[in-house]
Amino acid sequence: MSLDEYRRKRDPKKTKEPFTGASGKKGAPTFVIQRHDARRLHYDFRLERNGVLASWAVPKGVPLEPGVRALAVHVEDHPLDYGGFEGEIPKGQYGAGTVEIWDRGTYDLVEEKKDGGLTVRLHGERLEGTWTLIPAHLDGKEQNWLLVRKREDGHSGARNDYRPMLATLADTLPTGDDWLFEVKWDGYRALGYVRSGEARLLSRNGNDLTGRFPEIAKALARAVKSPDCVVDGEVCALDENGRPSFSAMQQGKPGTPIVYELFDVLELDGEPVLDRPLTERRKLLEELLDRRVSTVQLSGVFDDGEALFTAAKEQRLEGVMAKRASSRYAEGRRTRDWLKVKTHGEQEFVIVGYTKGEGRRARSFGSLVLAVNEAGTLRWVGNVGTGFTEKTIAELLDALEPLRVDASPLAVVPKMPKVRKSDVVWVQPKLVAEVKFAEWTHDGHLRAPVYLGLRDDKAAPEVLAEKPARVKLSNLDKVFWPDEGITKGDLIEYYRAVSPVIVPHLRDRPFTMRRYPDGAFGKAFFQKDAPSHMPEWIPRLRVQVSTRETPRRTRWISAPIVNEEDALLWMVNMGCIDMNTWYSRVDRLDRPDFVLFDLDPSSDVGFAETVKVALLVKAALDALGLVSFAKTSSADGMHVLVPIERRYTYDDTREFSEIVAGAIARTHRGLATTEWSKSKRRGVLIDSNQNGEGKTIASAYSVRPRAGAPVSTPLRWEEVNEDLDPSTFTMDVVLERIRKHGDLLEGVLTAKQRLKTP
Fold first, then answer.
1. In the CATH scheme, what architecture does the domain 347-462 have?
2. Where in the chain are the domains?
3. Which of 14, 91, 141, 184 is labelled catalytic?
4. What predicted TM-score, i.e. pTM, was given to this entire model?
5. In angstroms, how far is the first alpha carbon of the chain from the final one?
6. CATH for 166-342?
7. Backbone angles phi, psi at 171, to 5 degrees
8. What's phi and psi for 68, nearest 5 deg?
9. pLDDT digits (tens, 9 = 90+) for 410-439
10. How far apart are CA 72 and CA 103, in angstroms?
11. pLDDT (tens digit per residue) in 600-632
């Protein structure tokens, strides 16, 4: 093949591109893919053919997903030694710009068609797979081909649903060699997806930010040296001193610089890298980023956290991030592998109202009424009356006016200093404001708050008070499940992640501690009475309970009440593996919230029979018009719960369970039984005796002290079939189920039904 066209377009005196046309080495033919940042960024796909490099320009990069078609413009052949070329093509020359080798290796010719179409299997440093070049003559142009990746086994495929890893607020920086430190950026957290050379930005809630920051998305596509990747970072506005400023972002003055600070990579060339340690991901990110694109920057990493924190305070930055160098990317989870230490208070708050203005603001408002979610309700934390411009006041009034309501959305209406009750206008809790403040007061209010702007990347129900953890965790590396290598720290991080769904099932119920100080298979003991060293901020309830002695006696105890995440983590830190609570709440201890059907298989049957009995229980309840909910309880048992009105006693619920269980046992002898004695029992026991005051149940989402660390998992009834295997519900599996389905047992907390007997 001729190189005349190649030579005609280039002047060897003005460009360092090769002109020799040196022949290739013997062996398998070679390929090279070069990233060519010319007038338009593209990738050059070149195959060694008949002594030259047959070449195609691929504007959106080599497709990495099977079946995706990419335009490949057939261009002039290049000399073989062009396969090793990297460097600058001078301005004014053909193809002026930067050329970098993106991948290279050898290939097998799988098929060559009569029309010139080629199918090749690449063996590169980055790519391994089969691609087809099709002379499609798109738009009637002979040079317009298509490049398509063939579908093959083993290809994991790109994802579009990553969730950002979250940091835990701390009051001091960690010490040790396994920590890296970064500036805590003050902007919009955004995952950047680059697919086929085009970028889009998604917020931490999955909202599309591309339209809001189109120039950043455009710059990202050019800044990364891969047509398919996912990065994590913060979109920030810079103030007049070059500092990141959320307020500057909100004001949106013309000419305000906007940058995208990248600090992690989740996927590279279509392959996830979540499980690699942070140090490796950081190196990949450094190699991925083209530093010439100034609006997309690499967040700096420092070894000296204290020096960085001092500098952050001097420059009035938001704070410092501390990241464990060996940590994997725990997507969607808040862990202690990432810590945030702030130089001042700053977080989101829910706007629940505003006060009427006076003086200069008589026609607008005086302050915004702020709240956080706490214990299932909204709690007032203070009012913010500074930080507004005339423009932001007008925008806020426009947003607040349609949300006005007569009644306060707060659980407790506060007495606001120097504010008359009639001067407060309440609104639906929909809007979220970013506010900085000096500190939290001892009674949980804000001191010296300043309004920074509205946030649309966080939903109001997600807004919690951000305070340093009150629980001092210990022995995090202690192994609780030796075969699986699951540590106490892993267990704590799981409960931290599921706290939004498990705490509502624990809230306001007497809690029994079942402690496993030596792990899941060590000695365990029950502790109904709160330990003397339990923190004062965990509520207690004085209640009379039965002892385990014979004959039974009663005694008064101070039962713990687990109403928040910190209390839950304190229990886990004390060695509690599963979370055991009463069926009733503190305000009416003699009135349970549900009837429990506890299914416990005898030694002569297995889980398959448990499933059959669970379906029989459901059928009986359906016939009575009662909604029921199922969950696994352990390795071979199940729980069926029937939410009820709080008008029934424990005697009522036990009697109802006995009637239903007895009917099933009589009609399905050998499969179901109500025989409580283990020596006489055959089949699956429907245990009605578990409906009793003071009895406890392992809550949904509790990890069980069994091999494999199975979780007591809420189920959809369609899942309760012969294929159900409770051992598959590991901590990671349950976290993914929660992400997809939410709390499948929420109905137990909300549904109220009247019992009907057959």
1. Beta Barrel (2.40)
2. 4-149, 166-342, 347-462, 479-570, 594-750
3. 184
4. 0.76
5. 89
6. 3.30.470.30
7. -100, -10
8. -75, 130
9. 988 999 988 898 899 999 999 999 999 988
10. 17
11. 999 889 999 999 999 999 999 999 999 999 999
